[in-house]
Design brief:
Blueprint: E1 8-12, E2 20-21, E3 27-28, E4 35-39, H1 63-72, E5 75-81, E6 84-93, E7 98-106, H2 115-126, E8 132-134, H3 142-147
Parallel strand pairs: 7-8
Antiparallel strand pairs: 1-4, 2-3, 4-5, 5-6, 6-7
Length: 169
């Protein structure tokens, strides 16, 4: 599947086995009997569809700020079950050499079912022609990203906790 023709994929997962790939660029996997569609198109998404994310954050972004994050990202992939958004991943790029993946979120009700792995796989596919793709994560999450083909490196960062809910418009 080339980067150019990735726009929407429906996945059905059953025991984490791929069941088939259609001729029209739609992959199918089964997640405990329900359909998850992955898309890099955010047109039509509303703030009301973006509730239930940023679990555990002391001051999470509001759904309206979440929508601004998606719109401001260079690349986005959304996971949906029907009309419900159950996960997303974002990337910021310079369009030439470097990409950074700042956010991967899957709703608590849909975790440990392969959705996060599929979001990472699809984003890495979209970013495959960049020299470097970086992300920063807590040490507890390193094994997950290493299992996705990434290397553990040392990173430096600043966290402005008073802006955790987002920069004002």
């Amino acid at each position: 599947m080339s980067k150019a023709n990735f726009h929407q994929f429906s996945f059905y997962l059953e025991n984490s086995d791929v069941l088939g790939i259609n001729q029209n660029s739609t992959n199918t996997l089964r997640h405990n009997g329900y359909v998850v569609t992955y898309s890099d198109r955010i047109a039509g998404i509303t703030a009301q569809q973006l509730t239930g994310f940023f679990e555990g954050w002391p001051t999470p972004p509001s759904p309206e700020t979440h929508l601004r994050i998606l719109k401001g990202s260079s690349e986005v992939i959304i996971a949906r079950e029907g009309e419900e958004i159950v996960g997303f991943i974002t990337a910021i790029t310079d369009g030439v050499l470097c990409a950074y993946i700042p956010l991967l979120e899957v709703k608590g009700s849909h975790r440990s079912q392969g959705i996060g792995k599929e979001l990472v796989r699809l984003m890495l596919l979209k970013l495959s022609d960049y020299y470097m793709v970086d992300l920063t994560c807590d040490s507890a999450l390193r094994p997950f990203y290493v299992s996705q083909g990434m290397s553990a490196l040392t990173a430096m960062s600043i966290r402005n906790r008073n802006r955790q809910s987002g920069r004002p418009e």
